[in-house]
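thought: user wants a sequence for this fold. calling inverse folding tool.
action: design(structure=
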């Protein structure tokens, strides 16, 4: 594989954003938040959904999450080249419209199989939204500036996982669980109005390659033969499996292990809050310290914290006072890994940002979905198997990073220290 970076055609610091910085950060965060809403809003409803459809296997309720994430993965490979050729705005508006329709359609599902099928389709719609969100940022900036802005985006974005379960639980106080999906349709409608009025096209027509199979093949070949891009895509796919496994099993963990069903949304919000703080911290330090130094150091911390938590629970029993602070710190590591891995993967790609964003999104969802399901499906009334999975995923991610960086951590010629 080639290690040389492709010529970057977008300046690291853009001359001007199409709107005030606070609004741009908020808009990109809101686009990405549609994905988080589709995952987190119905977490408090999973038990009721299982009862409503008379599911015989308790872990089957996790499929409401995984069906969506499975649909979210592969279609990004299609949306990337299309957005590079057609432009960003038309594609994102079409995807949000479909997301809105499927949100309301989930309310009418008459069987669990139908609900999963609609969730799969909703994931497809959300995949296009995610590709465009990252591509718009890459259209306007690159390098550490992109990493800093994406950290700001993630800081705002993480408000949604903090509030979404509470929103879902609040909805269920006044309406049946079906309306936790109706909320998604309403959010989609609001997002369509905002983008229509305020977001211009960010990819100039002269920078759009023609849409054809040969061109798409060459673009993906370029992505897959760029060593840094491929390496950090694979590393992200593995480590984000830990995040997906937690989201899918969190309601069961706090209900069955720690007997905190009534206050689940508060405990979940605390974990998401730790992640949000870490994202903000990354936005403050990454341009000064560097993407590699930050992400590599924190990846090692993730592994150590997961090991300590596992051993502590085995030694002292599954006590919330031990598990929760250690797990919050472990989960916060994603805030110092995710944005930096994404920026490292996207930095060499220049004009094919849409294709790169699609490939990265595919890897961090499809691969992460598999590993997330593999870990969360081991839940047996104990949180220890999940933490053991975290250790394994962390070590796997570290191995990929070492291969990508040819055995050197914390910095290279591409990220000067």
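)
observation: tool returned 417 residues.
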């Amino acid at each position: 594989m080639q290690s040389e970076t492709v010529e970057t055609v977008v300046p690291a610091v853009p001359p001007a954003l199409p709107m005030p910085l606070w609004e741009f950060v908020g808009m990109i965060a809101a686009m990405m938040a549609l994905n988080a809403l589709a995952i987190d809003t119905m977490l408090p409803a999973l038990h009721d959904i299982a009862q409503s459809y008379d599911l015989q296997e308790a872990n089957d309720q996790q499929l409401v999450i995984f069906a969506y994430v499975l649909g979210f993965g592969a279609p990004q490979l299609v949306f990337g080249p299309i957005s590079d050729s057609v432009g960003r705005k038309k594609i994102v508006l079409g995807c949000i419209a479909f997301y809105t329709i499927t949100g309301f359609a989930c309310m009418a599902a008459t069987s669990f199989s139908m609900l999963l099928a609609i969730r799969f389709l909703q994931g497809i719609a959300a995949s296009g939204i995610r590709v465009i969100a990252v591509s718009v940022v890459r259209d306007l900036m690159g390098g550490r500036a992109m990493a800093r802005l994406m950290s700001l985006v993630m800081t705002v974005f993480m408000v949604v996982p903090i509030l979404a379960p509470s929103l879902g639980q609040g909805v269920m106080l006044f309406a049946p669980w079906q309306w936790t999906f109706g909320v998604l349709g309403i959010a989609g409608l609001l997002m369509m109005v905002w983008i229509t009025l305020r977001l211009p096209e960010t990819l100039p027509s002269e920078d759009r390659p023609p849409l054809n199979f040969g061109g798409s093949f060459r673009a993906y070949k370029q992505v897959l033969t760029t060593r840094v891009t491929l390496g950090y895509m694979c590393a992200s796919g593995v480590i984000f499996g830990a995040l997906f496994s937690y989201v899918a099993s969190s309601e069961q963990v706090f209900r069955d292990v720690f007997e905190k069903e009534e206050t689940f949304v508060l405990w979940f919000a605390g974990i998401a809050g730790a992640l949000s703080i870490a994202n903000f911290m990354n936005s403050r330090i990454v341009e000064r310290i560097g993407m590699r130094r930050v992400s590599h150091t924190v990846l090692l911390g993730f592994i150590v914290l997961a090991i300590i938590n596992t051993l502590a629970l085995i030694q002292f029993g599954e006590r919330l006072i031990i598990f929760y602070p250690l797990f919050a710190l472990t989960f916060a590591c994603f805030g110092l890994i995710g944005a930096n891995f994404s920026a490292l993967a996207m930095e060499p790609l220049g004009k094919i940002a849409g294709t790169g964003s699609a490939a990265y999104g595919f890897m961090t969802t499809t691969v992460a979905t598999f590993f997330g399901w593999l870990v969360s499906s081991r839940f047996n009334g104990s949180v220890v198997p999940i933490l053991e999975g975290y250790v394994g995923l962390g070590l796997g991610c570290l191995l990929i990073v070492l291969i990508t960086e040819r055995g050197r951590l914390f910095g290279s010629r591409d990220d000067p220290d």
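thought: summarizing for user.
answer: Here is the designed sequence. The chain has a mean pLDDT of 84.
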